[in-house]
Design a protein that fits this description.
Helix content: under 10%
Distance between the termini: 31 Å
Largest sheet: 5 strands, antiparallel
Number of strands: 49
Shape: elongated
Strand order of the largest sheet: 37-1-42-41-39
Oligomer: single chain
Structural class: mainly beta
């Protein structure tokens, strides 16, 4: 019976043209969506999505956020509403009051509520509340626990008013810990320079704070209005600003996200108008890059004329203060950064929100638009929701496809007020290293590595330059250890793909590093490395017959001078070939498939005649248990 060997020739197909990476993938940047839903006084609301921002007011008849000076709102990672609060009550995603007893916050506070999710149990929320300072009683900083899965998914406040800092200023803000698996919740103590940072991790709220000292003392005397205050982290979480209405100041601090330590930097006295009514700083917000702080200055009592002002403090230019709403309505109040890179401005009893459209730009170049977004039937007033600052930490330029030989795509998050963009990809080996284009562009990098991409925005004769860093990752290397594999009819071999990959996907859907081959055919595997870069190899299986000559003539004429098998030498292991004369005596033997018999017995020329050959071997990778393959036959030696 004939024996056959099937040879599988490995044909490498790189990802240049034959294969395209899959995007988005697990390595793709995902914009945080926990701050997508906003509700604020008076029952107004907006909602962010990848398509933009629209009005999204509370349902008709709702009295949830009728009078709150500020709120707390939280959405899940997909941007779906989870809960909101005015500091005293909590509403669920269906706008149902799930509070039970009142929480110990007060909607008169500028920051009455702040939601922080449990990092390990996303349905468990901690709502931190602040009370307002009054001459009679004061609750300070407390927290309650909301389980959004309780009561068949309608949610419930399951723990109420756990005291953290009884004599806290009415401020609370939060940012992610540097470990990215926990949060810091920060407040300040009255009549003290102390800051209290509470860690929130998978175990809950650690009620023993990290205490830092710095800055000035905020008085507990009600008449001073010093405790009418707001504190914000920058979106990166490395800077803090603290405003005090009564003091007329804004103080700046640095924050160590690994230790929770607060360090005083400096302060400014805010510009105050000459007025019969007392004015002071009200809402504050950092620009996305943390180089500017915006603040509103409002009066203590409401009049027919609002007389409120919007300012920018440039931290990168000697704390330069610029009035932003010159020549516009003096009705500004709340400030809050959105995930689209703009800072939104609430206007006293106005159906439009304003927006600082380019908050990273200095001075009037920030482009304050006082009629940026219609609230429809609602009117905005006072402050916006309080969010974990990290939920607004969105890079100014998003980029996708970070694997070598992909076209890496870049797109601005905030495209407002840009005529054109000059891109320098930091890739001098590319003919397209420096190009003029728009807010969306693609570039194929000349090789893997780290790049600094510099981009310059142009608008109205002015220019602003910034940069981002990107790593272009290597593709997976050669997938198979050898460039060929072999199989014997009726047997099987195990083929191994490139080790240490994140995932494997064979043509039949199997996902192991190894694949058992039993038949001729095409075998394809896609491998994905830890950086989400993919490559694909296809194994083409073809039939090859090992042939043995039946005669040869070792006469030195260059034609049929040797006897040897014809076939792939790298397919064979444990190989033996022996030649016998007609009396059964072995005249030649070898264990090397490439060796050939020259028709001699030692140094003696073998006579013309019929000889027998016997061959035994195994196939590399053969997983069958039949032992050695044995073949035999005859050959004629001619002289």
């Amino acid at each position: 019976m004939k024996k056959y060997i099937f040879i599988a020739l490995l044909y490498l197909m790189t990802a240049i043209n034959a294969f395209t990476q899959i995007y988005p993938n697990r390595c793709s940047y995902v914009i945080p969506k926990q701050a997508d839903n906003w509700f604020f006084r008076t029952n107004a609301g907006i909602k962010f999505s990848d398509a933009g921002v629209i009005a999204n007011n509370l349902p008709a008849g709702s009295n949830g956020i009728q009078w709150a000076n500020g709120t707390g709102v939280i959405s899940d990672a997909d941007g779906n509403l989870m809960a909101y609060s005015d500091g005293m009550r909590v509403w669920n995603k269906n706008h149902e009051d799930i509070s039970g007893p009142f929480l110990k916050g007060d909607f008169g506070s500028l920051q009455p509520a702040l939601f922080v999710p449990n990092p390990s149990l996303s349905h468990v929320l901690y709502v931190f509340t602040t009370d307002i300072l009054t001459p009679t009683d004061f609750n300070g900083l407390n927290y309650s626990i909301v389980d959004t899965k309780a009561k068949a998914g309608t949610g419930e406040v399951i723990s109420f008013n756990q005291s953290l800092l009884p004599d806290a200023v009415s401020v609370v803000c939060a940012t992610r810990n540097s470990d990215m698996n926990s949060y810091w919740v920060l407040s300040k103590k009255l009549q003290s320079t102390e800051f209290h940072a509470f860690l929130v991790d998978g175990n809950g709220v650690n009620t023993t704070p990290k205490i830092s000292n710095g800055g000035s003392i905020i008085s507990s005397e009600f008449s001073t209005d010093e405790a009418t205050a707001m504190m914000k982290f920058s979106s990166k979480g490395d800077k803090i600003a603290l405003s005090s209405f009564g003091k007329g100041t804004i103080e700046f601090y640095n924050f160590d996200k690994s230790s929770g330590t607060v360090t005083y930097v400096n302060s400014i006295n805010v510009p105050l108008p000459v007025s019969v009514h007392k004015h002071g700083p009200h809402n504050i917000e950092f620009s996305p890059d943390g180089t500017k702080l915006y603040f509103t200055v409002v009066k203590k009592r409401v009049e027919a004329v609002n007389l409120s002002y919007l300012y920018q403090c440039d931290l990168s230019a000697g704390m330069t203060v610029t009035k932003i709403n010159d020549g516009k309505q003096e009705d500004v109040w709340g400030l809050q950064l959105g995930r689209d890179g703009k800072i939104y401005v609430s206007r006293k009893n106005n159906a439009f929100l304003g927006a600082i459209e380019n908050p990273n730009r200095a001075g009037l170049g920030c482009n304050y638009n006082e009629n940026a977004l219609s609230l429809g039937s609602a009117t905005g007033s006072q402050g916006f929701p309080n969010f974990v600052s990290s939920f607004l930490d969105v890079p100014p330029v998003l980029f996708e496809k970070k694997c070598y030989k992909d076209l890496t795509e870049f797109e601005f998050v905030n495209k407002s007020n840009i005529n054109s963009v000059t891109w320098n990809f930091g890739d001098p080996d590319s003919p397209d290293n420096i190009v003029s284009g728009s807010t969306s562009i693609a570039h194929m990098f000349s090789k893997p590595g780290n790049y600094t991409i510099t981009y310059t925005e142009h608008f109205g004769g002015n220019s602003w330059t910034d940069s981002i860093k990107i790593t272009v990752n290597e593709l997976p290397g050669t997938i198979f250890e050898k460039d060929s594999a072999y199989i014997i009819n009726g047997a099987s071999i195990v083929v191994y793909a490139l080790p240490n990959m994140y995932s494997y996907y064979w043509q039949d859907g199997s996902e192991s590093i190894q694949y058992t081959v039993t038949q001729p055919g095409d075998y394809t595997v896609i491998v994905e490395n830890m950086n989400c870069c993919l490559n694909r190899d296809t194994l083409y299986v073809t039939e090859l017959n090992i042939r043995m000559p039946t005669a040869f003539s070792p006469d030195g004429n260059g034609i049929n001078d040797y006897f040897r098998p014809i076939g792939p030498s790298d397919a064979v292991v444990d190989y033996t070939l022996s030649i016998f004369n007609k009396w059964g005596q072995m005249v030649w033997t070898t264990n090397n498939f490439s060796d050939k018999w020259d028709g001699k017995v030692g140094s003696t020329i073998a006579p013309t005649g019929l000889y027998n050959w016997r061959m035994s071997f195994n196939v590399a990778g053969n997983t069958m248990n039949e032992g050695m393959i044995k073949l035999n036959g005859t050959l004629m030696l001619f002289r």
